[in-house]
Amino acid sequence: ISRRCHCDYEYDHSIHLKVQMRVHTGERPFQFHLCPRNFSRRGNLVVHIRAHKVPVTECKSNLRALLDKHRRILNFVLIAVLYVLDSTTIAFIIGIGSFCSFSGDLSFFSCICILYEVSCD
Length: 121
Description:
By secondary structure, the chain is of the alpha+beta class. The chain has two domains: about 5-50, Classic Zinc Finger (Double Stranded RNA Binding Domain, 2-Layer Sandwich); about 55-120, no CATH class. Helices cover about 30% and strands about 20% of the residues. The strands form four sheets. The chain has a two-stranded antiparallel ribbon with strand order 1-2.
């Protein structure tokens, strides 16, 4: 049985049509309790939960090695946006993915999506 959306997309399975309808309605029924993100597809929520499980702890001596390990654990594409927080601190706001970065002097690292922070004093 073919299922057709009012926008002319056609699907063989009713669940695919249901997901397409969420695009039109803006419905995001899959909620994550650790952050304000909601998702229209369960699979996207699962990927986001995986990102939250990646531990990043306080920097000891080699922040670059810590971040390299952090990047290897993640296995999806990343998007980063640079923000200057003050004259000495630069933060990268990270979207879904595996690219993480830090300030030039290695004094600050932050992943909003992952909700962990590394700060070296």
